[in-house]
Model the fold of this input.
Amino acid sequence: MTLQHPHAPLALRPMAKALLVVSLSLATFPAAAADYLVRDAAAYATAVRALAPGDTVVLADGVWRDVDLLFRGTGKIGQPIRLTAQTPGKVILSGQSQLRLAGAHLEVSNLVFRDGWAPGGEVISFRRSANEWADHSRVTGIVIDRYNKPDRQQSDHWVALYGQHNRFDHNQLVGKTNAGTTLVVVRNATSGLDNQHRIDHNWFGPRPNLGANGGETMRIGTSHDSQSDSRTVVENNWFEQCDGEVEIVSNKSGGNTYRGNVFQDSRGSLVLRHGHGNRVERNVFLGHGKAHTGGVRVINRNQTVRDNYFEGIAGDNFAAALSVMAGTHDAPLNRYEQIDHAVIERNSFIQVGTLLLGAGLDEERNAMPVNSRIAGNLFIGDGKRDLLRTQGDLSGITFAGNVQSPAVSAGFPGGVRAQSLTLQRAANGLLYPTTAVDAGAPRDLAPIARDQVGVDWYPKTLPATALDSGAVRQVAPGEDTLTAAVAASAPGDRLQLQRGRYTVSQVLAVDHPLSVLGPARGQASVQFSRPSLFEIGAGGSLRLARLDIDGALAPDAAGNAVIRVPPGSQAFNYTLLVDDSRVHGLTANKAFDVIATGKGSLAARIALSNVTVEDISGSVIAAAAETDDLGTYNAEQVDLLDSRFRRIGGPVLNLYRGGTDESTFGPALQVRGNQFEQVGVADDTSLRLHGVQFASIRNNRFDRSGRIRFSHRVGEPTLRMGDNPLTATAPLLSDTPVEALP
Done:
């Protein structure tokens, strides 16, 4: 049924495509507002021709596929023109759908975007074109759920705010995996620099690590327009597991306020990257000890960071709980401007890893903060390391009235007193000293509750299937029995192989989490006659355990690998585990790898534990496909544990991260308890580590093997080594100082 305005035309306008165009004008109509329920494109076109302030267009429940919603018109104060769903959450915009607003006093609510991706660069845009945008308009109760372009390197923004005085509130944005900022405020002289937007009560849900620049959850402005004020308010939002890159929020304009937000378990920091006179007040940062969780990074002039609470923040360097940067003299717009007149006061840093003063100090960034003040803060470390790390001259910062428990770090130049404190959790869920201390965050902080952000009719989850969470399926020995079992498997299944020989004549495609397990007693031997045994694609993860994998039947073909992640596969955030297994006989050509990761792929973790690898012509792990110096890489975490590598032609591991971009945290590497025997004979390299940010190499034995080559590209890479006896092995070659492990 369509509810029609009494003065609306009766004729339907033909539509060649599913293009929903809302053309709204202030014609003369009766004062009473009207609702129009539309079920298809024709009815929609009829209803929207003559809407007046106060009218509402209602989309009928169902899936609206491949629609371009242009919501255009002018309402009045107190009488916005509305577009909404018949039932919240029951209108699904899918396929190649998008929403654009243009005009004034418009309001959109209660729609869901999922099962597709925007055809252009924005899912929701507060403009129609460069010359037509929205002012005084609102988007509320919208869900964008994993609405990602299939190529994760293709960039888009989920929400783009243009114009002035717009509000984006009580929405849920979860699961963005492709490049591009989740929400941006786009500023220009045409649509307005003095934006005065309000972004509040939203749930910014999990965003996995992008492994490259461009994974911010929010950005306000750009370096080009950063010297003017946006005056946008970001308040009472939740940022949960927003791990896209080192900047969760990238502030690139002036006069903005970040107030009352909760950052939970999110890698990275709120970064005052460009712009002046911003305020960060009464926010709560909860890291729970998660690696790379950060707080606030301060740059530029007249920034204020006060009355915030930080707990369990484990990050360092640019993701420290507090990172005060060194800047550049006469900095161009895209670089780091010197800090001047910063105020950092009455904040609580509880059980945090690091405070870093003088972050990024180098030959270019050597302008230390001036005319700045750090006062009335409470500092308590996590006990794992000294809390304070300083670089450069701190004479431009005045310290006063700060308290550190139990003792003061040596690097503070006065203004911090020691006091042994006992903490107790208050009714607001935060820790405070049991004795009165005139320092730290105020006791009346009231962190916004998780159920008060987003919507209440759609779950705040990002569904995922874990390895080994599905059914156990028995697989008998034979020809292509494993092939059939993989093809019939469901996400999370465990394929339990029996004793015997398995021959595989096809490449086994892995597009969901899957485990292939050998018997507890006896041997399951797997031979394959294709260039690869497994190929991991989008959505795939793989665990292999208690297997004997023999490459004797594999053809002599370029690019051979037991486990291959093809370039362009869009395999992202996957896990690859190999345990208690033996891999051998990969000598069919000069570069037969065990694991080969292709360009554009990113593993969350690759781990070999108690594995024997023998007689391999290539590398055990080849993760060096990103050679264009853009700062991307193929594996976030690599672990080689308690394994044996014998007669390996190339390096056991070739791990590469190029470029000089500082937006990522990885790769990280752990090499522990392994034996290297005649490894790297082809190019005198047992481990080739280029641009790796953290490496721990300990308790390994190297016998007649190539060098360990560690080269520095960006950031402050850490190389820790200890108890690695060398027998007839060339020494380490590194351009980074080595930290000795006990």
Q: What stands out?
A: The chain has a mean pLDDT of 92. The helical segments are 41-47, 481-488.
